[in-house]
Design goal:
The protein is mostly helical. Helices cover about 65% and strands about 0% of the residues. Helix 8 (about 125-135) runs antiparallel to helix 15 (about 295-330), helix 9 runs antiparallel to helix 15 and helix 17 packs parallel to helix 19 (about 495-515). InterPro entries: Na/Glc_symporter_sf (IPR038377), Na/solute_symporter (IPR001734), Sodium:Solute_Symporter_SSF (IPR051163).
Length: about 575
């Protein structure tokens, strides 16, 4: 592995600048054309009349971020292709969300999913879940069309890496090397909770993860509410399924290509150590291997940045929506201000979150591997929040106090396990890596260590020689005592948080109701059609005709609900 410095060509920089200009141009076009986003509905929900195709690609682009593009190949390189099998159960969660949760959001016609929680439970529940979203996540029409462009860049970048890899290595050779290296294998059929990947936790997480995203995640729900009616929204959601699975599968294959390229000289443990963490594998491959073709690294970098920009732009718009609807309007009673003032405030909030995001990237450089951290934070928060939504839509006995107890209990438990695991230093078992084919250009290497692997190689070598180490030595098995819960695979964090939230929230509600003698009187529009159909009640609306209420109708519904709640 040579030590020459890889740099970008002029063509690479031109492609990157063009990508930024086109992305910015789309936003400026929708700013100075059409309705110019004069209302909060136009700015936050794109006027509720978006076409199906750009929304489907936007869902894919925001669901699969730069974390997917960079982190998934690294995960496949180190642990194998096991995460790909989450795609088997992923559609199940999507279908459940489309029939259990989506009709409720369309019936209420609000800008944020958390407004539902105030009407179903109360102001405190809405505020708490909104704050969790702001901590967790970091004009909608411009965002959606920009996401379409950036989704195309993501596919182009991934295809460029794959085509170049297959031409250099060979299509069948990539899969042969991956299979022999243990990267292509089924997850273990084990009931152990400590095994990183098993058939059960992979399939369960695939379903629950998609249910979290499309049943309780503001970023995705806000997209689905930009469609005119629920039929078009479901069609868009189902169209995004093959897009998500295809792109995720391609990123897994990219991991196999990178492994096939470096399987005899792993850059993580090579003597000259060109990279220090697995997250750098994808950028290193793009510059090192694709650098000989002018424009190709730039094309791939555009794909990575397109994935990042699509997620960031989606988050900025959703953060603005949640802050406006769930905090500004709620606590400052700003409904008395004009619609123009509210729209300008929403745009200012988007700018504020954009600046804040830039500042956070400066701080992020000090934290090392952020991919694993972001996954843990998402699953730590996603399960508890989903539990609150399901308790509200699928039960009539859950009250606000019980829901809050379930939310906080679940959140504390998942946070305890997540941070406890990180603090205990538990390291997962990795697949073998080789440095057999590495060419060494130095006189002495006394200690070669890898923080990602937690191992050390001792070697003294003459100048310009080949290492004779075929695999990384086994990690010392003697380790201090670790609390059993800290050994649980991170794949169980989301399902565990959901289960605890549901059980604790429901039981707490029943106990509180029996003690106080007060039982919740839940209006039918706050319940999922699935529950009302099973209970024999009529929904009071036809799903095919279900559309988001207009502004006047939504205000009337809000006032009517407030009168109902005060009466109860």
């Amino acid at each position: 592995m040579g030590s020459e410095k890889a740099i970008l060509s002029v063509a690479d920089y031109i492609l990157f600048i063009l990508m930024l200009l086109v992305s910015s141009g789309i936003g400026l076009y929708f700013r100075f054309s059409g309705g110019r986003q004069r209302t909060t509905s136009e700015f936050l929900l794109a006027g509720k009349n978006m076409p199906i195709l750009p929304v489907a690609f936007s869902i894919m682009a925001s669901y699969l971020s730069a974390i997917t593009v960079i982190g998934t190949p690294a995960e496949v390189y180190i642990f194998g292709i096991h995460l790909l099998y989450t795609c088997v159960s992923y559609p199940i969660g999507v279908v459940i969300a489309s029939y259990v949760c989506l009709p409720v959001f369309f019936k209420l016609g609000e800008c944020t999913a958390y407004e539902y929680l105030e009407k179903r439970f109360g102001k405190l529940t809405r505020t708490l879940t909104s704050v969790i979203f702001l901590v967790q996540t970091g004009g909608m029409k411009a965002v959606l069309w920009t996401d379409l462009f950036q989704a195309m860049l993501m596919f182009i970048g991934i295809f460029a890496v794959l085509i170049k890899g297959f031409l250099d290595i060979g299509f069948s050779e990539v899969f042969r090397i991956g299979y022999e290296g243990g990267r292509i294998a089924l997850p273990a059929f084990s009931l152990s909770l400590t095994e990183r990947y098993t058939v059960w936790n992979v399939l369960l997480l695939g379903c629950i993860y998609s249910l979290m995203n499309f049943g309780a995640n503001q970023v995705q729900i806000q997209r689905l509410l930009t469609l005119k009616n629920i039929s078009r929204s479901r069609m868009t959601l189902y169209l995004s399924i093959p897009l998500n699975i295809l792109f995720y599968g391609l990123t897994c294959v990219v991991g196999l290509v990178i492994y096939a390229r470096f399987y005899r000289c792993d850059p993580l443990t090579a003597p000259n150590k060109p990279i220090s963490v697995a997250d750098q594998l994808m950028p290193f491959y793009m510059i090192k291997v694709l650098g000989s073709s002018p424009g190709l690294p730039g094309l791939c970098i555009c794909g990575v940045f397109g994935a990042a920009l699509s997620t960031v732009s989606s988050a900025m718009n959703s953060l603005s929506a949640v802050t406006m609807q769930d905090l500004v309007r709620l606590f400052l009673e700003s409904r008395r201000y004009s619609e123009k003032t509210m729209t300008l405030t929403a745009k200012a909030l988007t700018l504020f979150y954009g600046v804040l995001c830039i500042l956070m990237t400066v701080l992020a450089a000090a934290f090392g591997n952020l991919i694993q951290a972001s996954i843990i934070v998402w699953r730590m928060c996603g399960g508890p929040v989903l539990a609150v939504f399901l308790l509200g839509m699928l039960t009539t006995r859950t009250n606000e106090k019980g829901a809050l107890i379930g939310l906080l209990s679940s959140l504390c438990m998942t946070a305890w396990i997540s941070f406890g695991t990180s603090a205990s230093g538990v390291r997962p078992k990795i697949l073998p890596l080789s440095v057999e084919g590495c060419q060494v250009n130095s006189t002495l290497f006394s200690q070669i260590s890898s923080p990602i692997l937690g191992s050390t190689v001792m070697s003294i070598l003459p100048e310009t020689s080949t290492l004779r180490i075929t695999s990384v030595p086994k990690i010392n098995t003697e380790s201090p005592y670790v609390f059993p819960l800290y050994k649980i695979s991170y794949m169980w964090y989301g399902p565990l948080g959901l289960l605890v939230g549901l059980i604790v929230g429901y039981i707490s509600s029943i106990i509180i109701s029996r003690i106080t003698g007060e039982y919740p009187n839940v209006a039918e529009e706050f319940l999922s059609p699935v529950l009302t159909q099973f209970s024999g009640k009529k929904n009071g609306f036809k799903e095919k005709e279900l559309e988001i209420p207009g502004q006047d109708e939504a205000e009337h519904l809000t006032n009517e609900t407030s009168i109902h709640n005060s009466t109860v």
